[in-house]
Please model this.
Amino acid sequence: MYTIMQKYLAEFLGTLFFVYVILYTGNPLAIGAALAIAIFLSASMSGGHINPAVSVVMAAKGRISTTDLIPYIIAQILGGLVALEIYKKWKP
Model:
């Protein structure tokens, strides 16, 4: 079983990777592959939401607790912002 912090880290890293690929490539096939990889790698740990909208729906459906919802969303937003900062620092 994974700790709650590992779940948040999985959402953070999955979102970071996914958003970075979006920013770096803009290629729909690469973006689709990145999303599939992020979900595949984080699904068993955190559910592989990688998107605040998905997390909201999963909480509404009862798949994650409502107390986990805000930390999931924060981890995802921070992952996206870190991806943006990495991209800005090393953009092509």
